[in-house]
From TrEMBL:
InterPro entries: ADH-like_N, ER, GroES-like_sf, Lipid_raft_assoc_Zn_ADH, NAD(P)-bd_dom_sf. It comes from Streptomyces longwoodensis. Residues 10-300 form the Enoyl reductase (ER) domain. This is Oxidoreductase. Pfam families: ADH_N, ADH_zinc_N_2. GO terms for molecular function: oxidoreductase activity.
Length: 302
């Protein structure tokens, strides 16, 4: 089968389409998925550049990618809740397991796979898993009560945009931080109550911070004794004024993904797709994400 292979750590030019062995028979607890699309995430760029090499045993040559949407083509003997032909989504922790999704067929444990939202095209569903699970799990870690206020930084990014929508569904009042005034309408459309820019944050006001932009200064918006969760481990805000600070690392979670897919089908969560790239132009997709200003997900299609 064809896959986008990272030959050695480095720039986007190290990505190329190669023939690799196709998984044929799934393990008893696993399924095979014929990929409709993978999505590109910042972690793929970081892994490609070797930034995670110190805490991962997975090494090139390897297939990158955490997000996949596609069709089940085979199920292991112990799998009871998925069938051949099902449209599914999954988030695969590629950095830890080496199971990359930039491939025509992906073998994954059934427990991390969920039915795809029926209201989306098979490919577009690939925009949901990593960003959705990250937003959901970070909000869980923040554990703010209904009616509380939260500042979400990077509010029109992949994780931020889903976090804004999920926070509203949890009854939180959302202050959205965006870098540029041109993103204000988008943040409001996602459900933000108020939009601020990084230089104009409220002071010691909100109950919680969900930090996705890598801007630790944002902690100044949190009230004394409030809570902060960051998803950017390299830019953790220093604790101050009794504020609890935690880092959230996304975890594989089939049931959590299923819950997110149901919200999409209920029209309560909207996914944004920026552009589709054939596997052959994966390097271009990596360059586009690195350049910034992308609003919505970049998808890779076999
Ligand atoms: N801990 C985890 O498990 C986990 C999971 C997923 C992602 N992450 C990390 O979380 C971060 C966001 O991921 P993502 O997929 O949402 O990325 P993304 O789609 O690129 O979104 C990032 C957003 O933040 C904005 N931004 C960047 N710097 C900013 C600043 N100084 N002030 C305000 N906004 C700023 C970007 O704007 P521009 O486009 O204009 O630059 C963009 O809108 C990445 O660092 C990623 O590695 C961590």
């Amino acid at each position: 089968m064809r896959a986008v292979v990272l030959t050695t750590f480095g720039g986007p030019e190290q990505l190329s389409v190669r023939d690799v062995p196709e998984p044929v028979t799934p393990a008893p607890d696993a399924v095979l998925i014929r990929t409709a699309a993978a999505a590109v995430n910042p972690v793929d760029l970081q892994t490609r550049a070797g930034l995670h090499a110190g805490h991962s045993t997975v090494r090139p040559p390897m297939v990158l990618g955490w997000d996949v949407a596609g069709t089940v083509t085979a199920v292991g003997s112990d799998v009871t809740d998925l069938r051949v032909g099902d449209q599914v989504v999954a988030m695969s922790a590629q950095m830890a397991t080496g199971r990359g999704t930039y491939a025509e067929t992906v073998a994954l444990p059934a427990g991390i796979v969920a039915p795809a939202p029926a209201s989306l095209t098979p490919a577009h569903a690939a925009a949901l898993p990593l960003a959705g699970l990250t937003a959901r799990q970070a909000l869980d870690a923040l554990a703010l009560p209904e009616g509380a206020s939260v500042l979400i930084t990077g509010a029109v990014g992949s994780v931020g945009g889903l976090a804004v929508q999920l926070a509203r569904l949890r009854g939180l009042s959302v202050v959205a931080q965006v870098r540029s005034r041109r993103d204000e309408d988008e943040a409001l459309a996602l459900g933000a109550d108020r939009v601020v820019d990084p230089e104009d944050l409220p002071e010691a006001e909100v109950d919680g911070l969900l930090e996705t932009a890598g801007d630790p200064r944002a902690i100044r918006a949190v009230r004394d004794g409030g809570r902060a969760v960051t998803i950017v481990p390299s830019r953790v805000p220093a604790g101050e004024r009794g504020i609890q600070v935690a880092v959230s690392h996304v975890e594989q979670d089939g049931p959590g993904l299923h819950a997110l897919a149901r919200l999409v089908d209920a029209g309560q969560v909207r996914l944004r797709i920026a552009q589709e790239f054939p596997f052959e132009t994966a390097a271009e997709a990596h360059r586009a994400l690195a350049a910034g200003g992308v609003r919505g997900k970049l998808l890779l299609l076999p």
